[in-house]
Amino acid sequence: MFKSVVLPVALLGVAASAGADEGQWQPHQLPQLKSELRRIGITIPAERLADLSKHPMNAIVATPGCSASFVSPDGLVVTNHHCGYGAIQRNSTPEHNYIANGFLAKTRADELPGGPNTVVYVTEKVENVTDRVLKGLAPGLSGKDRHEQVEARIKALIAECESDKAYRCSVPAFNRGGEYYRIRQLLIRDVRLVYAPANSVGDFGGDIDNYEFPRHVGDFSFLRAYVGKDGRPADPSPDNVPYQSKHFLVVSAEGLKAGDPILLAGYPGRTSRYRLPAEIRFARDVDYPAKVASITADLSVIAAATMGNPDYTVRYASVAKSLNNVLKKTRGLLDGFARKDIAAIKDAQDTGFRTWYRQHGTGPKNLLADLDAAIAADMATAQQETAWMEATHSDLLKSARTLYRLALEHQKPDAQREAGYQERDVSFIKARLTRLEQSFVSSVDQARWRAALVRYARSDAKARPYGLDALLPAQNALAPLYKNTELGDTTRRLGWIGRDADAFRKSNDPFIQLAVHLHDVGMALEERRKEVDGNLERVVPLYMDAVVAWKKSQGKPVYPDANGTLRVTYGAV
């Protein structure tokens, strides 16, 4: 008997004793696995599991960066504690510290606004649009031109899908650019905080226990989705009503026993199962150590700059929580590399694949050489991007750069604007700029940026974007920028939306001036990334096609790496 469907993020204690078969399958792939699902005791028909309009898949939803699920007919949503942390922090003050003490809305009138970044996505439709993205691309295009043509097609597909403004659509790549699926999600914009445990419960064991199993922790929070009286998504309003979820999950009161089937569904971030040995070594030796060093230093600065000030501590609680989460995960990955020689395992797999390809592969003869060159360019560009992020590690500078880029893109027809700066994105930009009000202190931002500039100055000069050094302020000369800017004020910050590019060039605001001066360097790096991505998008899908053929020759099925989209796996307790 199949007892329950649970989210991977909310599985908690079950995860310690549940064994999952390998795979992060797209729902439409499940009918191919029906005999295996039946074998372990999952009685829900595979065809129903592939139908996003039916139970249980219609109950599986997402919040930004997290998995969640409906657990009542009235829009009640359960997700992880850290996934509700932004809403918890937004409503906390030193006097009403819901982070430390928890929160419970005893009535719906007591529920608190989640804030502009707290939304719920309900996936309603997924369709294969690979041909519409890739068919007819000229073979001789440069990487940049190819990437931009693909992006133009994706933007057209999204615009077509979003003719109904209740929906947010996306066209992510699967199999590293070999397939594209258009995903239509209902976007619920009024989401309220219902319950959060005290931090001593929701974060019991702290980051030492994070990502460790078995783990004893109350890692959950409850939100509620609201819509207009017509049942359609609406901006936050006291007149809104709870969303009537068509389907929701029910916790089994029977509990679980050894051998019970488990189906896991959610929105996992990213996996790297098909990375090449060179990419694994780059992660192990360069990328992950740099990330650990940077985040560790940043957290130390935040702790020192907020010490003794309860208001500052509350403002940066969500930032610190997010950084600690990434830090623990990255350290865990490095520990995994230390315990097991993943690169050597990848070497053996790669050697086997290359031998097979030379004998049986039907793709281009120069595929392997082109692949290695594209990966090398990707890694070199990634190092420059890391240096750029350190050099510009200021929330006010990021805001200024976003505002200036928005003004520049606004000069173009909407379809020609860069993704992320179209009309469909303006409300999200406003939300980010508004959210800063609850998570920013000038002195803390300045301390973080100063420390980041020190780290940048110590980095390999060859790995820095060309021309950037000459444009950056001195580490000891940041105070005047913060003293003379108006961007720390939310109303004035938002007031820059809609101004033309010339107003930015004439501005005396030091952060606006710096954003203008940095723009060309940033664009050069962005253009390089497009060239690299275009070449990857051309060669890696051919590689993945060959990998699929190689796996099939061994009788092994293939699923795409996780990319933040809805996935399913299964196993038994």
What would a concise description of this structure say?
The chain contains 20 helices and 16 strands. It is α+β, with helices and mostly antiparallel strands and 573 residues long.
Q: Helical amount among residues, as a percent range?
A: 40-55%
**Count of helical stretches:** 20
What does the largest sheet look like?
8 strands, antiparallel
End-to-end Cα distance, whole Å, is: 13 Å
Describe the structure in your own words.
The structure is a single chain. With 573 residues, this protein is an alpha+beta fold. The chain folds into two domains: 5-123 and 188-271 and 564-572, no CATH class; 277-553, no CATH class. It contains 20 helices and 16 strands. Strands 3, 4, 5, 6, 7, 12, 13 and 14 form an eight-stranded antiparallel β-sheet that branches. A four-stranded mixed β-sheet has the order 1-15-16-2, with no helix packed on it. Strands 8, 9, 10 and 11 form a four-stranded antiparallel β-sheet that branches. A hairpin with a 2-residue loop joins strand 3 and strand 4 (66-70). Helix 9 (277-306) runs antiparallel to helix 12, helix 13 (367-391) runs antiparallel to helix 20 (510-553) and helix 14 (395-409) packs across helix 20 (510-553). The radius of gyration is 24 Å and the shape is globular.
Spell out the key features of this protein.
2 domains; disordered N terminus; globular; 46% helix; alpha+beta; four-stranded mixed sheet; 573 residues; 16 strands; eight-stranded antiparallel sheet
Q: What is the secondary structure topology, with strand pairs?
A:
Blueprint lengths: L4 E2 L12 E2 L13 H7 L5 H4 L10 E4 L2 E5 L5 E4 L5 H6 L7 H4 L1 E2 L7 E2 L6 E9 L1 H5 L8 H19 L5 E4 L2 E2 L4 E10 L1 E7 L2 H4 L3 H4 L11 E7 L13 E2 L18 E6 L10 H30 L3 H6 L1 H23 L2 H19 L6 H25 L3 H15 L13 H13 L6 H17 L20 H5 L6 H6 L5 H6 L3 H44 L13 E6 L1
Parallel strand pairs: 1-15
Antiparallel strand pairs: 2-16, 3-4, 4-5, 5-13, 6-12, 7-12, 8-11, 9-11, 10-11, 12-13, 13-14, 15-16
Helix pairs in contact: 6-20, 9-11, 9-12, 9-13, 9-16, 13-16, 13-20, 14-20
